[in-house]
C-alpha cells in the first residue's frame, strides 16, 4: 500500500485557462496516509471524478504532482500505478465462475496457483461468498455481483490503493447497508489504502475515517464524520451533511454580537473579525428547541414531518425557514412557538467560512 500525496494540483479541460473559473480542480494539497479509509464527498460536478481520474492515471493534471510514497507518478499510465478500482457497475465476467472471477487479476499477473487459491479463498471468506465459488457469475444477484467486483479489487496484495467510484449506485436501498458494513469490515481486516468516491453522505460517513468534502473544484473541509457534523468549516458542509442540513440564517454583527432579525443570538464564543462581509448564523436542527412558552425567537410552524424515529418541524421566523428535530411530542402546523438555539452549537460564518470560536478558545 502507499501514502498518496497531491501537491499543488490543478486541472483544466481548457487549453489556455485564464482564471479559477476555467479550472475543474482548483489548487489541491492533500495527503492520504498508508492504510487509511478515505472518502471524497460532494455533489455532481464538484470535481470528484476528475480527481479520481488524475490519481488513477487516466488524466494528467494541468499543474502539480501526484506522489505514491514520495515517488512521482504524475506522468505514469494507469498500468504502472498498481491501482485497483471498483466502479458503479460490477466489472465481472458473467461466463466465469465466482472463483475464476476472483482469480483473474492474479492469474493475469502470472501468480502461482497456490497463491491464487490462498488469496481467493481468503477474500471469498471475507465477502461471505465461499458457497458461491463454483457458481457462474451470470446467476448472481446484483449485490453479490458487486461483492465479487469488490473482491477483484481486493484480491491482489501488491496494490498501492483501492478506489471505489460510486460502488453502490445500482444496489437496492435495502441491500446498501449490508455492503456498506461489509466494506468497512473488509478495510479493518486488510488495512488497504481505500478511497471511496460518492455524492451520498451516508455512504461516506459510514465508511471513511476521514472525509474530504468538495465543492466547485475545491476542498472545503477534511475531517472525521463527527468533525463534519458538529463543526462544519463552511456553510456548504453544513447544508450538505445532515438531514435536514444545518439552518443557515442571515445576521448582522455589531460589537462582536450576532443579530438575527434584530434579535441577539448567543454564539458559541467570540465572533472574531466577522464584522465585514456576509455574516450568517449556523445551527443544526438537532440543537433547536421548540416550545409554546418561555423565551427565544418567535416563530410559527409551517409543517411537521413524522419520520418515525423523530419529528422534523419547519418553522418560519423573520422570513427565514428554520428546521428543528424533536423527540416525542411536537407542535402542529400553524402553531405559534418560541425557538431556542443551543449556544455551544451556534456558529457564526463569514462569507461562508466559520468565523466563531468556542468559548475559552483564545486563538
Automatic annotation (TrEMBL):
Q: Which Gene3D superfamilies match?
A: 2.40.50.100, Nucleic acid-binding proteins, P-loop containing nucleotide triphosphate hydrolases
**Places the protein is found:** Cell inner membrane
The protein's name: Glycerol transport system ATP-binding protein
For the ABC transporter domain, which residue ranges apply?
4-241
Q: SMART domains recorded for this chain?
A: AAA
> What keywords were assigned to this record?
ATP-binding, Cell membrane, Membrane, Nucleotide-binding, Transport
What the entry lists under PANTHER family is as follows: ABC TRANSPORTER ATP-BINDING PROTEIN, MALTODEXTRIN IMPORT ATP-BINDING PROTEIN MSMX
Q: Which GO terms describe its molecular function?
A: ABC-type ferric iron transporter activity; ATP binding; ATP hydrolysis activity
Write out the GO cellular component annotations: ATP-binding cassette (ABC) transporter complex, substrate-binding subunit-containing
Name the predominant localization. Answer: membrane
Q: How does it sit in the membrane?
A: Peripheral membrane protein
Q: Which family does it belong to?
A: Belongs to the ABC transporter superfamily.
